[in-house]
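Structure in, sequence out. Go:
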């Protein structure tokens, strides 16, 4: 008997069925049967199902003699199911990778509940995936399993059959079957949740719910949408037959009215001539099943009132008034915005006529994300070495807490923001300021950059349209023309910046200020950071920080972090730092061994708290090398990345540590100890000598002394690599002596000539 019976009805989905069935059979949890039901589809669905059945014994092909609808097709699958649990999946949707393994683990963890509810994400033709907006209801915190009375918010989820796994014995005992017609999920899912003795949740996206442009059943106009009334008649009949469920009538009444309103207002569902009749039918159901005193929000009460009145003319009048109000609000908002924008432009022109303030400096990082990166380190250095300079930091309100008390917080787009840009002598950023900013004579702009470039940048993207994304290269050069100084960590960076952003600025090859903390932090600081993140004292913390893929619309993770940790064992945890373009948070484990650190304001603290970095093409590897801790490069899509974005040197020829080309190889790198062996250390030493010659903890001080204090001839001397003592990692495992018998292979000697920028 298999663990899962996955039931897939198919009708007019030939373009998507192959992907759907592959997503089931390709699951890492193989203990399943796939019951694919051809609902007498006029296209090639039946042939596709037969092809899969011929090649995989787990597939049972069912061909219905006539088209009977989605409900009947699911019932046909139910009659043949033998698995412990029933999982439903529509023929145009897909299971996410490792979904069934996560479901199986959660079922085992919660004692095989009657129903397990999991999450989904809507996927669009653009490649965008948007997670369910009420996913908070699926939290795994608290006791599990439970009854619906303990978590009634679950009834606020989308009432579909395919975001749940059902224990087959429970379904057979309750006698659940799907009715004919549209909206057949309604009289199944509500009774299943209300009747279940045990329910559990899984806070994980397990289904990708395809949003088709055309052809979906619910997107087709017709009188079939009137079936929604019969489905709620069946639901309330079920409640009437089970008096113990009467407590749920108020909730079901509200959900029914919400459903009617949704069907009515969705464009393209109801024929124009049928809309008045639909409202009359909705009014009849309102009166038939009304529960006095059912609470609702103000907006919901208005929708319920329209259904209760039930006249098309009244609805049209109220809708017209609502549209007029919304348009008036939008017009007022646009007018207010235009007036405010004009006032700010006038204010900025006026401020530019006033004298510069030689004792003011304004800083920003990543377009207002908060205090951090190189500008953050420089802001602190300004206060330490040039205390006569008053500093301001530009940050959006949600990042206000990251701004130090001694720095003034400035919100982007305000009068204070434009005043700071107009009057401050020093302007510091790691990207460009607002393109409308006019640099005045006497102002000094410091472009800090935000790392050592591995991937192509600036003008070097002109022949890379996938990566350029419509970049205005003329505007890019106008921005570079405003720079007075550009910071560089090494000679490689200097050559790249001066080629990719050609202008008349001065390059300061002093190291990167954000890396200064690696030389100044103490073991106590590391312990404190690990404790704040929830890293166990004896665990090896792996910082996983992938970069952005220009050639992909969606940005999924290359790794299943939960599966990797299962294979590595209990001695490891992962600090997962998503790129802002990633479309989903990292997978969370029940034991908390995957820690999402994507929202942390500074990556430097994550580097200090971790023991090893796993990355792909992120510039973070250059910063992490300053710490002299192990680095593992996961390059599973090297050819595609090179074709789309391109890199300045061959990372495979000159890596900072061990290389892996996929998940299995990455696990092998850790289980065999290659991530921290002598060969890895020698690779890292060569990499550090090439790319970390100046990061000795005093980069920010050198910049301030050169630019602000005019002490370019009295800068602190650079500390040689051999004499630096970055703070050591916390994990005791890293202190073990590598096996001297392991062959070292061919490692570039530190002084071996390696091309810095192969295309220069």
């Amino acid at each position: 008997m298999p663990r899962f019976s996955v039931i897939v009805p198919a009708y007019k989905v030939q373009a998507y069925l192959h992907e759907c069935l592959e997503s089931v059979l390709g699951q890492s949890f193989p203990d399943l049967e796939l019951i694919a039901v051809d609902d007498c589809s006029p296209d090639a669905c039946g042939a596709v199902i037969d092809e899969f059945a011929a090649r995989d014994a787990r597939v049972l092909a069912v061909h219905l003699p006539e088209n009977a609808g989605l409900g009947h097709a699911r019932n046909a699958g139910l009659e043949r199911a033998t698995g412990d649990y029933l999982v439903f999946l529509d023929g145009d949707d897909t299971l996410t990778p490792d979904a069934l393994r996560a479901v199986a683990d959660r079922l085992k963890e919660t004692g095989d509940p009657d129903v397990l509810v999991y999450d989904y994400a809507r996927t669009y033709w653009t490649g965008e995936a948007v997670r369910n907006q009420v996913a908070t209801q699926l939290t795994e915190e608290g006791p599990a399993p439970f009854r619906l009375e303990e978590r009634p918010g679950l009834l606020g989820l989308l009432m579909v059959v395919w975001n749940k796994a059902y224990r087959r014995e429970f379904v057979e005992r309750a006698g659940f079957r799907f009715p004919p017609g549209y909206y057949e999920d309604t009289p199944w899912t509500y009774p299943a949740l209300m009747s279940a003795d045990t329910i559990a949740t899984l806070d994980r996206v397990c289904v990708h719910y395809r949003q088709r442009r055309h052809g979906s059943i619910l997107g087709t106009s017709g009188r079939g949408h009137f079936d929604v009334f019969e489905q709620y008649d069946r639901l309330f009949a079920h409640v009437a037959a089970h008096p113990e469920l009467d407590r749920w009538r108020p909730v079901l009444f509200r959900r029914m009215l919400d459903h009617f309103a949704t069907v009515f207002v969705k464009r393209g569902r109801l024929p124009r001539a049928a809309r008045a009749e639909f409202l009359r039918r909705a009014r009849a159901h309102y009166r038939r099943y009304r529960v006095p005193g059912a609470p609702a929000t103000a907006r919901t009460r208005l929708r319920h009132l329209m259904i209760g009145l039930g006249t098309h003319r009244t609805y049209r009048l109220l809708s017209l008034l609502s549209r007029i109000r919304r348009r008036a609000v939008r017009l007022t908002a646009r007018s207010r915005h235009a007036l405010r924008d004009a006032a700010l432009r006038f204010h900025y022109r006026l401020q530019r006529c006033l004298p510069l303030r030689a004792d003011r400096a304004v800083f920003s990082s990543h377009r207002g994300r908060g205090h951090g990166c190189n500008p953050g380190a420089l802001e602190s250095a300004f206060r330490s070495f040039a205390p006569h300079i008053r500093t301001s930091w530009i940050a959006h309100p949600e990042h206000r807490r990251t701004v130090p008390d001694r720095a003034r917080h400035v919100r982007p787009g305000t009068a204070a923001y434009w005043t700071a840009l107009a009057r401050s002598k020093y302007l510091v950023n790691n990207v460009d300021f607002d393109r409308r900013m006019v640099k005045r004579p006497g102002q000094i702009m410091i472009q800090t950059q935000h790392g050592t470039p591995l991937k192509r940048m600036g003008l070097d993207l002109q022949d890379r349209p996938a990566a350029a994304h419509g970049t205005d290269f003329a505007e890019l050069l106008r921005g570079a023309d405003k720079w007075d100084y550009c910071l560089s960590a090494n000679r490689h960076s200097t050559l790249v910046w001066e080629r990719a952003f050609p202008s008349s600025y001065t390059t300061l090859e002093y190291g990167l200020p954000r890396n200064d903390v690696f030389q100044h932090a103490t073991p106590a600081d590391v312990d404190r950071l690990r404790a704040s993140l929830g890293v166990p004292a004896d665990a090896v913390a792996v910082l996983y920080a992938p970069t952005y893929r220009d050639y992909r619309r969606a940005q999924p993770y290359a790794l299943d972090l939960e599966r990797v940790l299962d294979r590595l064992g209990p001695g490891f945890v992962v600090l997962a730092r998503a790129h802002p373009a990633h479309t989903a948070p990292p997978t969370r484990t029940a034991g908390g061994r995957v820690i999402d650190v994507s929202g942390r304001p500074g990556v430097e603290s994550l580097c200090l708290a971790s023991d090893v970095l796993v990355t792909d093409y992120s510039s973070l590897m250059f910063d992490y090398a300053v710490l002299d801790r192990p680095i593992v490069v996961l390059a599973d899509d090297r050819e595609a990345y090179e074709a789309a974005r391109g890199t300045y040197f061959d990372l495979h020829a000159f890596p900072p540590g061990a290389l892996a080309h996929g998940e299995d190889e990455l696990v092998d790198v850790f289980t065999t100890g290659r991530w921290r062996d002598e060969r890895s250390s020698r690779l890292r030493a060569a990499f550090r000598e090439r790319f970390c010659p100046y990061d000795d903890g005093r980069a920010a001080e050198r910049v301030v002394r050169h630019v602000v204090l005019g002490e370019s001839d009295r800068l602190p001397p650079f500390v040689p690599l051999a004499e630096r003592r970055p703070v050591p990692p916390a994990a005791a495992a890293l202190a073990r002596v590598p096996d001297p018998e392991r062959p070292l292979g061919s490692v570039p000697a530190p002084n071996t000539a390696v091309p810095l920028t192969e295309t220069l």
